Amino acid sequence: MNVPYKQLIAGAALVSSFATVSTVAHAQELANAEISGNVLIGTDYRFRGITQTDEAFTLQGGLDYVHESGFYMGVWGSNVAFAGSLELDPYVGFSGSLTSDVEYDIGVLYYGYPNDPGTPEGDFWEFYGSLAWQGVSFGVAYSPDYFAETGDYWYVSGAYDMELPGEFGLGFSIASNIFDSRAEMDSFLGLTGSGISAGSSYLDWSVTLSKSAFGLDWSLAYVDTDLKKSECFLGDDGCGPTAVFAISKSL
Question: Of 1-5, 46-50, 82-86, 152-156, where does mean pLDDT reach its minimum?
Fold first, then answer.
């Protein structure tokens, strides 16, 4: 999801946290603030290592307002293969610098599925914070009641971004998805009553190569988790290793 904090810590959240590309460019100056938009098309939407589009193409877009004080707000949306086929996420936060080298970002985000007819509900709140220093970032996110009403959840992540020759970028991310109990994570993965359990946490990671060319941002990411196929919604391939290609444009 193309949100300022997610670009730092979400780890495979869009088509892959990392197929995430910077979107604050060509912004319209507006009374000490900037308004910018972004669109993206990708071969999959991977959020925390798990496909959200059943391994099919994704179309995503967002709109951001950023004030010079560091305050920002926006909304981001994508197609999904569940919960009424639409995800729409409003967010608000504050970012700035602690020193000349250390940046921070804090905020709150609402994951919304406005067409979701199901029970339990998919919508949930998440509070987040991150620190970044010379290409290294560390973040923590917390939800008091995660997707499908699966209770307390923590997302602890780290990432490193570096520049390569030829103006290429290379990014690495790894994160732990921590549920309150084994039962809650099994419920999230659709394993309840199956006799299979995946434990109370799982890891996701990604490696992303990116490049700006022809007025567009291009990325190719390898995304994976440590979940076995049998632990992923009783045999789904959507938690396993994959390559995700994405093209995005700042507006």
Answer: 1-5
Instruction: Identify the pLDDT of residue 2.
Output: 40
Which residues, at least 6 apart from 118, have a Cβ–Cβ distance to it below 8 Å? 83
Q: Which domain holds residue 89?
A: 4-250
Contact 152, 144 (CB under 8 A): yes
Percent of the chain with pLDDT over 70: 88
- The residue among 126, 157, 145, 120 whose CA lies nearest residue 9 is 157
Please list, in sequence order, all residues whose beta carbon lies within 8 angstroms of the beta carbon of residue 154, skipping any fewer than 6 positions away. Answer: 140, 141, 142, 176, 177, 178
In three state form, how does the secondary structure of the chain look?
CCCHHHHHHCCCCCCCCCCCCCCCCCCEECCCEEEEEEEEEECCCEECCEECCCCCCEEEEEEEEEECCCEEEEEEEEECCCHHHEEEEEEEEEEEECCCCEEEEEEEEEEECCCCCCCCCCCEEEEEEEEEECCEEEEEEEECCCCCCCCCEEEEEEEEEEEEHHHEEEEEEEEEEEECCHHHHHHHCCCCCCCCCCCCEEEEEEEEEEEEECCEEEEEEEEEECCCHHHCCCCCCCCCCEEEEEEEEEC
Count the domains in the chain. Answer: 1
CATH number, domain at 205?
Answer: 2.40.160.40
pLDDT at 117: 83
